[in-house]
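Hi R.,

Here's the chain you asked about this morning:
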Amino acid sequence: MKKHDIKLKTKVKRLLTNPLTMREIISRLGTPNQERAQIRRRIRALVETGDIVRIKGNRYGLPGKMNLVTGVVQGHRDGFGFVIPDDPAQSDVFLNARNFDEAMHGDRVVCRVETTKRDGRREGRVIRVLERANRTVAGMFERARQGGFVVPFERRMVRDIHIPPGETMDTADGTAVVVEITSYPSKTRHPQGKVIEILGDTDDPKVEIKIAMARFHLRSEFPSSVLSEARAVTKPPDKGKRAWSGKRADFRDRRIVTIDGETAKDFDDAVEVEKLAGGRWRLGVHIADVSHYVIENSALDREALKRAVSVYFPGTVIPMLPFELSNDICSLNPKVDRLTLSCVMIFDRKGELVKRDITESVIRTVERMTYTDVAAILEKKDDKTMRRYHDLVEDFRNMETLAAILRKRRQKNGAIDFDLPEPLITLDMTGRPENIIRAERNVAHRIIEEFMLAANQAVAERLMKAGVPAIFRVHDKPDPVKIEDFKEFVATLGYRFTTNDRITAKDMQKILGEAAGRPEEKLVTHVLLRSMKQARYSPENIGHFALAFDNYTHFTSPIRRYPDLIVHRLIKDIIRRKNRKDYWAELTPAICESCSVAERKAEEAERDIIKLKQTQYMAGRIGDVFDGIISGVTAFGFFVEITEPAVEGLVHITSIHDDYYVYSEQEHTLTGERTNRRFRLGDKVRIKVTNVSEPRRQIDFEWIPEKKNRSIDQTGSLKPQKHRRKQSSETKGKQRIKRKKR
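And here is the predicted structure, written out as tokens:
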């Protein structure tokens, strides 16, 4: 939105203390006659964006004052859905299947709140679609007598798309396609469209990635203009030209290393630690100077903004920047000169920041380290690895010490740490899942995590001190209703908050600390995590609740996150004393919104592919028996998480035949009416894999009662029933003989 439109929006909102006609608005604005036509158009544009709404009598008002909510529709495969408000402070609005009007999943709408429950939950109806999210849809083509239908892969789109004769591109039945919607749905008819791209066979792993990209509207190939710019800038710093002479700090003589995973190819960050006199520490965090190569408003820059993030799938990545930059000139590859933006921090013995210096720099890393090798040195004391990196062993020990100090200080301030390892999927040569394990988080991961948090916090504080418009990484306080639910739940486990007033992150960290090492630790962590809101980008610094930081931003990953690239430009403006406050005030709100949306879309796509690979892997394990932990409880059953392979599946309540079960939302339990048997979040259970659905990304389990658990052999297979009876009889006989001997 342009700057003058932002000003107009502010003025109009101030005027609308009650609904006004267009004439009344223009009159109160004092608009000259010759400008009124233009102002009318701009006010109507505010209606299109949902900032104001038009009601009966051609009057205009503020949505929040008339029980109206603007937001995005989030559908559910069972037909109902929610409106997620634009204002993160508002709670979601439930939509039953009849109240979608003409909206589809992902659309931005105006919703009327019709009822509010005692617990604050709201129900409503869509009254207007403001913006369509899906011009194209990926799905499975099904031929019919008159053309065909496309069943969307996005299961939250519950209506199939009708394809008229002549618009099918002669697509074979059961083929994955992309359709362009030519007519959106109404209450009485399906949406209509035409096939514009044939993706191929859904069993092909390469097609799976194409489907994910089409389904989540991810950008695939880079435009030729972008690639041309990338090739033009991929020249290393030239000593003869002295690209950094007089401008950059020269840190090439320092022992700086990168620490990443074995398969990483784009190295954003490099680190160094030095122990100083008086118990002080010097931490250098050096970040790839992507902004030196990606010029503002260039084709590269515009494409990076559209992508906003790199998307990581098992075995492949959809980069934000072309590989010529992300894997080459911008990547902090070992033992070559690279341009960086460095944040050098001095900490006292307790981990308090006493000095920071953010500067343009040039570095030459001495090693490309992996998490595994650093952990082998620090945790396993592996002789071979320690000999190989003998010059750096003491540096890594210092890193471990400083990271522990910083972590202790964060925890003391109330930071909430959710240490939940992600599934790591190994693919075979054809792209099929070969193994799924929990990704290891070792001491090296924790070192890098602490150092990046420290740098991000230091940069955010510098931005605040400068008083410039900026991009912050913020995390809102949890919804009070969800916090009350959490308090009630942990109370059933014997945990108490020290105060009934405002709950802080420190209070929550205390509960997690008390639960650590206990059987219910994972249970408490899961429930707390689900009570939290999602972190996002914002031009307004409201702090980061979970980290317990007043100031926080993203600075350390400009190769794969666009907000970090913008933060680099902001920092450079400060370093160079360049005043562009008005410029950034105009740009940062739209960038924050765009990048937050792109981030959520990327996370959805990554989760979807992981679920697909998990279902593919478990399709070959039907009938196998595993031990697991209940990771979620609902009215229709409970989810079970297995450690190896790292997958989650559902035990549907209809598959438990020994009783009728009652669901308690507050206690996260299912309890038998007759047996009083209880299934609770965090409980250990034994299950058998009974069914797998790749399209639904669902794995079905059957719960095995305890009495049957004893008849499962070490291979995980159920022993024949006849053999079990015989063995049971013999065992009882032996027990009787032993009693007589005693």
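One quick note: Residues 710-742 have pLDDT under 50 and may be disordered.

Cheers,
M.
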